[in-house]
Description:
The structure is a homodimer of 165-residue chains.
Chain A (H helix, E strand, L loop, with lengths): L1 E2 L1 H16 L6 H8 L3 H13 L3 E4 L5 E4 L8 H8 L5 E2 L16 H16 L4 H6 L4 H8 L22
Antiparallel strand pairs in A: 2-3
Helix pairs in contact in A: 1-2, 1-4, 2-3
The structure holds a DNA duplex (30 and 30 nucleotides).
Amino acid sequence: MHITAKVDYAVRTLIELAAAGPSPSKAEFLAQSQTIPHKFLEAVLADLRRGGLVNSRRGPDGGYWLARPAEDITIADVIRTVEGPLASVRGERPEDVDYGGPAAKLQDVWIAVRVNLRAVLENVSLADVATGQLPGFLGALTSDPGAWERRTRPATSVDEGAARG
Amino acid sequence: MHITAKVDYAVRTLIELAAAGPSPSKAEFLAQSQTIPHKFLEAVLADLRRGGLVNSRRGPDGGYWLARPAEDITIADVIRTVEGPLASVRGERPEDVDYGGPAAKLQDVWIAVRVNLRAVLENVSLADVATGQLPGFLGALTSDPGAWERRTRPATSVDEGAARG
DNA sequence: CGTTTTCATACTCGAGTGGTAGGAATTCGG
DNA sequence: CCGAATTCCTACCACTCGAGTATGAAAACG
Lengths: 165, 165
């Protein structure tokens, strides 16, 4: 459950392009405004172009711009473009795993995880973030004070009592 | 957004232990019943023991058993024990990232992702899976036919369902 | 004692992550 | 056409992680 630098950079760069409008933005400018290594960003932009999310032009006055309206590109689109499927279990898609014995129902848990990932990532667009006007359901999720708290697993006071290794 | 073999093995093994009850199960038996490489499973079990989720005993009649009731161990507990935080962005926790310019609100998206991950993973116990009696909200998430479909194309936001009330 | 099992350490081997370097191809203004 | 700007392409690098193997020591039993 890790969001890689590549995904993070890609999303932030596209948000910057959403805010920049239809005129081309140079990679060097994007790199500096989001604090991304310039040559690494070039590789990310190449993926985004091959994925059809941005267009580009070379030369002076060259640069990158969104290939589709910012309202029509979701965070899920970006992740799928630069990294692949939203959720996978040991390299397989959740609907393809097959468990035996008492673990059979575990597949449903992974499916539910993907449903909840999609519920957020497929319903937030670049425009939503760039304008700062996030959809209502998103505010409902983040307004819970517990949402911003780090949560560590319960400390077990049992493990010193019983058979110690 | 990848569930590693280690996590998958750990969860399935603990479900098997939940089904086995209080008597010790041998690593070799667990490995065969869930089709996990035996020596690899031993390393996973060592993490689980150090994390306080299982106890162990050596020798004949030795083996592993749950250190706590199966109802009190959630899937989130298992992931945090063998892998660390549920969700991270470039190695940092979502509440620690800091974005500038139009990407500022992106942090809220990552927070919401974590909220929805927690909504599933902190509310399903080993006992729930082992008995096959998953909590009601889980069934609600997986009963949607779209939940089991693979999705590669841009998604039109038709239904936003946050998790569990 | 010997057998069974956990436990610890070390190792391999490939893939992925996060970059960097150098230069070719294109687009522009003049 | 010239030259500058900028994208684009290929390759490379260091490091970590994922997944798994091998060997043997330590404990629990009878």
